[in-house]
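Sequence in, structure out.
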Amino acid sequence: MGGRDESAPTSVKPSPCGRAQFAVRVALIAAVVVGLLLWSGWPQRSVVTLVLNRTLGAKVRVSGVSTLGHLRAQDLAIYDHDSTLASNDACISVENFDLDYALFSGRRSSINSLRASALSLSFDG
């Protein structure tokens, strides 16, 4: 009767240990998501396609991209700006493209080697 009201809400502050565990879980989930994205090759393929599109001013299709140590692509096709990617009329088609490069190698970026197993050029004119 004269005691404390038990039904009144009490504020419970999360402990620092609980916050740390939450931060670790979020970091772990983020690392797994980033790892899966990198493993899928989607970010690498998107960046390579975007850079080549802007640099060459042409449409580019890339598949099988890897950027660890070398820039590798199983298939690289460059199309005229007016053509569609669905067509088979690529201006330049390269299979098993492998570019060995060194970024910031003292003076500036340099290309050490460029290899491809097949190269096809097709220009109408």
